[in-house]
Inverse folding.
């Protein structure tokens, strides 16, 4: 892990396209701004972890569970149209 010291309004570059700027420092909190291309997802770690868990759970689902009607669900019947 690279550890850098930055002051307010100073920026860190990741590659040529991602900028991380220290926006504000108040007590023990640091506010950062991130500028990245829209194709690069940017999430807080806890949100990233939740997305990853949901994706893993979805990947582990049995595809038959998605296509079989449940026993307690009655199929809808389309209303009959008069000609």
């Amino acid at each position: 892990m690279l550890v850098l010291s930055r002051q307010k309004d100073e920026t860190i570059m990741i590659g040529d396209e991602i900028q991380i700027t220290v926006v504000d420092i108040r007590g023990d909190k640091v506010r950062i701004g991130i500028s990245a291309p829209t194709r690069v997802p940017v999430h807080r770690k806890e949100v990233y972890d939740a997305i990853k868990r949901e994706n893993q759970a979805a990947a582990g689902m049995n595809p038959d569970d998605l296509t079989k009607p449940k026993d307690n669900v009655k199929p809808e019947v389309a209303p009959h149209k008069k000609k």
